[in-house]
């Protein structure tokens, strides 16, 4: 199963593309691992100490994924990853 993932913020800027297709992920956590392998230029933002970065916001069908609750993915899910936004 392949998922079309929308990247926002710094993730989009560094990856150089807005949409990335990720295959083989059954959960949000697996999706982040696969994406980090596929797009090494953003892997340091996606992973911290070998685990998904809890600062990365993940939305599945417009609902924010909570890292403490595993989320199973469906083929039709709309997935968006957003890097933290800070300003001054």
UniProtKB/TrEMBL annotation:
Q: What is this protein called?
A: MoaD/ThiS family protein
What the entry lists under InterPro entries is as follows: Beta-grasp_dom_sf, Mopterin_synth/thiamin_S_b, Sulfur_Carrier/Prot_Modifier, ThiS/MoaD-like
Q: Give the SUPFAM superfamilies listed for this entry.
A: MoaD/ThiS
PANTHER family, alphabetically? SULFUR CARRIER PROTEIN CYSO, SULFUR CARRIER PROTEIN SLR0821-RELATED
User: What CDD domains does the entry give?
Assistant: Ubl_MoaD_like (cd17040)
Superkingdom, taxonomy of origin: Bacteria
């Amino acid at each position: 199963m392949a998922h079309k993932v929308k990247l926002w913020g710094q993730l989009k800027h560094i990856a150089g593309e807005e949409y990335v297709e990720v295959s083989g992920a059954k959960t949000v956590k697996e999706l982040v691992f696969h994406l980090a392998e596929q797009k090494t230029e953003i892997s340091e933002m996606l992973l911290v100490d070998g685990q998904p970065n809890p600062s990365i916001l993940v939305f599945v069908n417009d609902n924010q994924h909570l890292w403490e609750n595993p989320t199973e993915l469906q083929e039709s899910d709309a997935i968006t990853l957003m890097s933290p936004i800070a300003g001054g």
